[in-house]
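INTERNAL TRANSFER SHEET
From: sequence group
To: structure group
Subject: NAD(P)/FAD-dependent oxidoreductase

Please process the attached sequence and return the structure record in the designated field. Keep the field labels unchanged so the import script can parse them.
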Amino acid sequence: MNVIVIGAGIVGASIAAGLAESGTAVTVLERGRSGGGATATSYAWVNANGKEPTSYFALNAAGVRAHHELARDGAPWFVPGGHLEIAADEAHQRHLDGRIDRLREHGYPVEEFSAERARRSVPDLRVPEGTRKVAFFPEEGHVFPLAYLDAMLGRARAAGAEIHTRTPVVALEPGDVGATVRTADGRAFAADAVVVAAGRWTGEVAALAGAHVPLLQFSEPGDVTVGYLATTDPVATSLDKVVTTPRLNVRPHDGGRLLLQALDLDVAADPDHVPAPDSALAAEFQRRLRETLHGTGSARVERLVVGQRVMPADGLTIVGPSAEQPWLYVVATHSGVTLAPLLGQAVTREVLGGHEPLLDDFRPGRFRDGTTPASPPVPRRPGEQ
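Return from structure group:
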């Protein structure tokens, strides 16, 4: 069987590795550089925290477990340090209390910490006076996405996959069996099946085959598809896990750096106008970091980016065979980092003729009539990606 995977981000690479290691002949076609889309600008927090409805929670919880299984003997890309969430006001406490109750009903591990225990967990942590509640989610963690991507692409190549970057797909032509994939450089690739996992370009690529995959695209500053990420210079700190607060989310990054996110600041995010590291926005990130962690007074923002989310029109993962073409399989998800290892296994199983029940509520056939559901709400709850 010959399978073409379109997209070499964190999801496409996971699927390519799974297929190649199953003995399938795999060719990966990537329009730019591998990981050049959402993979490179993700907060990369592995979690199922607060994800609704129940089937979407179950899918993400399975994704969390898949990360632990994949890294059970240690992996340089996965840090299973947990997630500490601080609720500093009454409204946030009520929201957190309700979420904790729902998560416990699902068997999702969560502990309630005192402020003192939170400080012991992260000695540099500044817990605000009057903090109402601190929750710890021990099975959550974070990923260094480019390190994960390198590992998956390496596994795919070792199993025989061919990987072509800077190779945009310009046509998907049905055949008697399977399809022909044509690229901008004039080449043609025959395939029994085509998997489109091209991030925020998935809808555009699938449309070449007449398939409808509705994804939201950036339309104005601060919409649901965009958000700032700030990377500091190297900082000496005790932080070893994800910490979320009403004013700042922070986690360890590579090389001793910290990765920062402040969801309320995203209202001005515009991928065409990214502030400089010496901007007022960078100074605000630095101020909030000092409020959150001791020993960060000299930390400086080294890099600001505007990440662009892969956002299905209803906010939920799209994964499964196209309703229009039997040889076409599509994948698009806002939870790509959490789901990547699970999708690598599940999509491989389905492309080879199996069935994964966890994916049943997320099939592209729900858009068969061509309608696009109402847009999901802008993610603004503490800790959301």
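Handover comment: The CA atoms of residues 193 and 327 lie 5 Å apart. The longest helix spans residues 54-70.
Transfer complete.
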